Amino acid sequence: MSTFCGRMREYSEISIDRFDGGNLLSSVFFLSHCHRDHMTGLNYRSFAKRLQAGNNIYLYMSDVSKVLLLGDNTYSFHHLEPYIKTLQIKRPSTITIPCNTVSGKPKLVSVTLLPAGHCPGSVMFLFEGNEGTVLYTGDFRWEKDKAASLSHLHNELGIKPIKSLYIDTTFCVPNALHFPSRYQCVEVTVQLVKEWLSHSKSHFVYIASPMNYGHEHLQVEIFKHTNEPIHTSDWKYSIYTQIQDLAIAYTTDPSARIHACVSKLLVLRPSTMWFTMSTICSEKLKEEPTKSSDPHRVCYSLHSSYSEIKNFVSYLNPEEVFPNVIPAQEPNAMLVRIKIT
């Protein structure tokens, strides 16, 4: 659960993932992904009025996040569409920051969206300008050494000097020191699904996800390895068909063998918290149910592990680090900062 207030120390006219209170004084807004704890205020009338009040005040996000936002089944965000601008991933864009005073001049800042690996459309924001180079991760899952592979974090001298890093510290706890790689988690899950489906044509699979979006990568990989389209609701199907990487994997046919609610059912629950309670979290990839009615739990994380966070921070070596999340076991942000630096 994000505890980020919405504004960075640098580029104070920008607000990210918070759209209420003092953030309404900002003149540029960014949305990293479409999970509720990063959308506070987005549906408020006061935010719509802020966008309508001035010239050139926009809400920036990725193409996929725009699709998800406008397709939301709880709130209607279509009134925001005239003020939404999408940015291409891994392509630096120059953004104008309008001045809040009559006599002031607008500022320019370069913004690069980096894939965050959290859920469809999720991105980090790399800001570069007169106030320094700043990275806001939003929620992210990067495995060890991922940062070394991205040219946008480097220049001709090596790693770009990062003034401040605003980082997702959801699993900055000892119990989440290591997570298996995405590849390992997918491999174990696919094998489990294949074995179950091989029993008979009347054996089916249901993937139980606690959130609207997040496990699509796992679901698409299951489809690719089984060639079995995944049944989903008409609402989600209408969204997935607008996203190239997802469209092929889903169907509204209720007779599909994956995500069909019938008697002989394998229920898969992708989970992270369940496995962090185990002392052998780094080795355990699945948990067999104790009762036939319980789900098969498979390890699959949408956030980086404690060791992955430390590896990321160590590699970038920023001047300042600001945790975006205070884990439940920690009393304050200062102790989280000490743990990762």
UniProtKB/TrEMBL annotation:
It comes from the Eukaryota. GO terms for cellular component: nucleus. InterPro entries: DRMBL (IPR011084), RibonucZ/Hydroxyglut_hydro (IPR036866). Signal peptide: none annotated. GO terms for biological process: DNA recombination; double-strand break repair via nonhomologous end joining; interstrand cross-link repair; telomere maintenance. The keyword DNA damage applies. It is found in: Nucleus. One of its GO terms (molecular function) is damaged DNA binding. Keywords: DNA damage, DNA recombination, DNA repair, Endonuclease, Exonuclease, Hydrolase, Nuclease, Nucleus. Residues 262-327 form the DNA repair metallo-beta-lactamase domain. Belongs to the DNA repair metallo-beta-lactamase (DRMBL) family. This is Protein artemis. It comes from Lottia gigantea.
